[in-house]
Amino acid sequence: MSEQTAVAAGSTGPTKYADPVARRALMAGVSAEPGSAKPDAILTVDHIIRNFGGMTAVHVDHLEVQRGIITALIGPNGAGKTTFFNLITGFDRPSSAKSGAHWSFNGRKLDKTSASSVALAGMVRTFQLTKSLNRMTVMDNMMLGARGQRGENLLTAMFKGTWGAQEKQIEAKAYDLLNRFSLYAKRNDYAGSLSGGQRKLLEMARALMSDPTMIMLDEPMAGVNPALTQSLLGHIQSLRDEGMTVLFVEHDMHVVRHISDWVVVMAEGRMVAEGPADTVMSNPAVIDAYLGAHHDTDLGDDSLLSDEAMEEISQEVAAEEAQRDEEQETK
Ligand SMILES: Nc1ncnc2c1ncn2[C@@H]1O[C@H](COP(=O)(O)OP(=O)(O)OP(=O)(O)O)[C@@H](O)[C@H]1O
Prior knowledge:
By secondary structure, the chain is α/β, with parallel strands linked by helices. Helix content is 42%, strand content 18%. The strands form two sheets. It has a six-stranded mixed sheet, with helices on both faces.
């Protein structure tokens, strides 16, 4: 069993960053400026711009993601988080592809790389279950997660009847992961029959089939009921404790506070702040980015909503309403 497989199957011991004191010490000297240098960056991104027509969805000058910890990417709706994920995982091309966009993962350049090559390099993102994946069993979803390993299409191999020893190992890994994520009993059920939380577990388990070095989770808690939230959070923390790097997008600020070692904030396509969760969430630029656009956003700490902030927000709301009324009248 490879070391990576051992991580996925949960049989390795904790790594040095399983210790919160070690993680805090690691990041203690890192500047809280956007684009700050990290002690050991696993992902480095430069000059990534994505325009849709006249609108710039992403404009990231520089970003480094630290190896071995959990980094949250937060920002209001439309900030560009998903587009950024798509760009760095090869599912979309930057508009700046020919004018200086480059990014590297684990020492390997990825700028001109396809999505499958990015996954093979060890940077894997979770995907929501699509209609066709819903119609497949849980186990078939897992086997599909191994697709691309050693450049093979396992499903084709299955249908061709070339099911060999190597594939048996992969099957064993799928069972290990299903056990770990409490989905073994569901292995023959259609993925579409799973609850919201179980789907999120399957998305994570499926991503782990390809032995990632870094896992990227897009809103891992969306649609998850409170009973499974704790379990999902525990799984994400365990992955980190076993040595995996985690980068995740999440709107729930309580979750972000609870599990993030580092938080990067995106607004209007740009990285606007970085730092430990508490520092970032008391940063006026972050409060502005959220509350300026979304007055009902819960930043996970009610004490941030001081009388002064509330007064400012209500003035902004009143000004916006007055402007809307004016626009209506002139129509
Ligand atoms: N294919 C596309 N064509 C045109 N505009 C797009 C496209 N994809 C994204 N956008 C726009 O780019 C901006 C960034 O969108 P994106 O989905 O990346 O934001 P986000 O931060 O992930 O938002 P949310 O938190 O709501 O998921 C938005 O204004 C969105 O409408």
